[in-house]
Amino acid sequence: MEHPQNDPQAAHGSDTDQRLTELEIKASFAEDLLDQLDKIIVRQQQQIDALLREVADLKAAPVRDGDITTARSLRDDLPPHF
Question: Which end of the chain is more exposed for a tag (fewer CB within 10 A), N or C?
Fold first, then answer.
């Protein structure tokens, strides 16, 4: 009777089990990373949507110029060096 250590089939099975375990661990980490990235993308999209609403509100809001209400131009907000 051969010992399992000397049996090539047992060594091959053990190597396969170890490789399979390593692949399962890598797949688990990849799945966790994908979940984290998905949450980040959702949060970023919410931030983009909020910023788009804010820009639309700013464009739509009239600016009081004395007693006259005028549309706001983004050129009016350029720094002096432009």
Answer: N
Digitized pLDDT (tens) for each residue of the chain, 82 residues in all: 445 556 656 666 789 999 999 999 999 999 999 999 999 999 999 999 999 999 999 988 876 555 445 566 667 777 777 5
C-alpha–C-alpha distance, residues 81 and 46, integer Å: 34
Tokens of 54: 């804010």
Map the chain to HEC letters: CCCCCCCHHHHHHHHHHHHHHHHHHHHHHHHHHHHHHHHHHHHHHHHHHHHHHHHHHHHHCCEEECCEEECCCHHHHCCCCC
Cα end-to-end span (Å), the chain: 89
33 in Cβ contact with 40 (< 8 Å): no
pTM to 2 decimal places: 0.54
